[in-house]
Design a protein that fits this description.
Number of domains: 1
Helix content: 25-40%
CATH topology: Creatine Amidinohydrolase
CATH architecture: Alpha-Beta Complex
CATH class: Alpha Beta
Structural class: alpha+beta
Distance between the termini: 32 Å
Largest sheet: 5 strands, antiparallel
Number of helices: 4
Shape: globular
Strand order of the largest sheet: 8-7-9-14-15
CATH superfamily: Creatinase/methionine aminopeptidase superfamily
Length: 250
């Protein structure tokens, strides 16, 4: 497994890429409201990304037909935006987005409430986000990759939620998906030793019910097998000699 160590120049470009993506996510989050279609979100996301002179890295990636993955309620990830899926009060919607800035990728995901949602849905979103922050406490030079996985699992398992196993985090840089793969569930092995300059996309995907997922007929959209709500939270991070740096947060 060849995990790239970024130079100072590359880290600077990835910081810029991440900051732009954080701004795109913030603007998308502000725009979400009942009555929007998932295609409305995609069009706005692509417009925002291109307004910064960047390229949406999801568009046509392995054939994906949109710039933003828009996943509603039981959809875990890779939801394809359409003009007939209308957001309604009480929904939750996960937005997974990425962009390329001067050849360097960033990747981040957020789950948003559409209007007023149930307390159970609020807790799922909040705990999925917190599991990311628990996980990256282990993203330190000299630590091991699967310490991140184990911390996410340890935090989430207390709530009885299902941690999606078929989809994992990943390295990122001049390619959207680089080594290593980063599971969100506990591992018996330690995994590789972390080094300063590694850039990782850590992204817990958590179901309110069981961990099992299915793919819809479009071959992209992943849903919880039991129809339970699912939340997704992701940031691109930099491993440093001290605490990890989150590149996709404002």
């Amino acid at each position: 497994m060849a995990v790239s160590i970024k130079s100072e120049r590359e880290i600077g470009l990835m910081r810029d890429s991440g900051k732009i993506l954080a701004e795109v996510h913030a603007k998308l989050g502000e725009a979400i409201k009942p009555g929007m279609t998932t295609l409305d979100i995609d069009r706005l996301g692509e417009k925002l990304i291109r307004s910064y002179g960047c390229i949406p890295n999801f568009l046509n990636y392995n054939g994906f037909p949109a710039s933003i993955c828009v996943s509603v309620n039981e959809q875990v990830v890779h939801g394809i935006p359409t003009d007939d899926r209308i957001l309604k009060e009480g929904d939750i919607v996960s937005l997974d987005a990425g962009l390329i800035y001067k050849g360097y990728h960033s990747d981040a995901a957020r789950t948003h409430a559409v209007g007023k949602i149930s307390e159970e849905a609020e807790l799922l979103i909040e705990r999925t986000k917190q599991s990311f922050f628990e996980g990256i406490k282990a993203a330190v030079e000299g630590g091991h990759l699967f310490d991140i996985s184990n911390r996410i699992d340890s935090y989430i398992s207390q709530f009885g939620y299902g941690i999606v196993r078929e989809l994992v985090g990943h390295g990122i840089g001049t390619k959207l998906h680089e080594d290593p793969q980063i599971p969100n569930f506990a591992q018996r092995r330690k995994g590789l030793k972390l080094k300063a300059g590694m850039t990782l996309a850590v992204e817990p995907m958590i179901n309110m019910g069981r961990c099992d997922v299915e793919w819809l007929a479009d071959d992209w959209t992943v849903v919880s097998a039991d129809g339970s709500l699912s939340a997704h939270y992701e940031n691109t991070i930099l491993v440093t000699e001290g605490e990890p740096e989150i590149l996709t947060l404002l």
